[in-house]
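Re: beginner question about structure tokens

> Can someone show what the tokenized structure looks like for a real chain? I only ever see the sequence side.

Sure, here's an example I had lying around. Input first:
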Amino acid sequence: MPPAYAKVASLGDGKNAQELLTEQLVMLQEHVHSLEENLLSADVNTMLANGRFLQEKFQRNVSPYK
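And the corresponding structure tokens:
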């Protein structure tokens, strides 16, 4: 679509193509941010679980005579 047309032609809800594209990109950015937060949260939870596992494993095997 020619840039001049994208800025002036009303496509839907009184918005031009440039405005619609901007809205869509913002929605995608928000979704990617949400995915990133979920991944980081999962990484943190995995790290905490791993820490608990290591603590349980090595606390049981520590000799009191060292």
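Each token stands for a local structural state, so reading them left to right follows the chain. The CA atoms of residues 36 and 47 lie 16 Å apart.
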